[in-house]
Amino acid sequence: MRKYKIGQIAKKAGVSKRTIDYYTNLGLLKPIRSENNYRYYTEESLVRLHIIEGMKANRFTLEEIREQLERLDDLAQTEAAGSITDNAINIDVLRNQLKQLEKQLLQLQPAVVGLDAQKAAALRNRIMVQSMALVQSLMLYINEITCNL
Description:
Residues 3-71 form the HTH merR-type domain. With 149 residues, the protein is mainly α. 15% of the residues are buried. Strand 4 and strand 5 form a beta hairpin. It contains 6 helices and 5 strands; from the N terminus they run βααββααββαα. The chain folds into 2 domains: 1-57, Orthogonal Bundle (Multidrug-efflux Transporter Regulator, Chain: A, Domain 2); 59-149. It has a 3-stranded antiparallel beta sheet with strand order 1-3-2.
């Protein structure tokens, strides 16, 4: 598993070290502590940073982002517990999730046009949670593959 120091992950994500500190203090990022108490961030943290920045760009508040990430973590734990066999994530589960999400998006596109802002925002939140859960699952799968190489 690749580990990044705060400056490395900040540069890779295109944010400042101060932003990384702030997100860590809010609990949005969870670093790994080394024996000498240095903070290291994983690829999962990098994915979370991209999710956070994407949600901020869509005008989610940091509190809403925290809530969504908590739901995502809960979903990922539930899915991981149900889809891991002999330390390998079931690829078919991921494919089915992706197909289901794509199907839902295609069905919802015509309906979104006529929605008021509040309903559109609620719908966007539901889709975002499902998308984040899928990204989290894919990230776990990629980590599993690279650890076994």
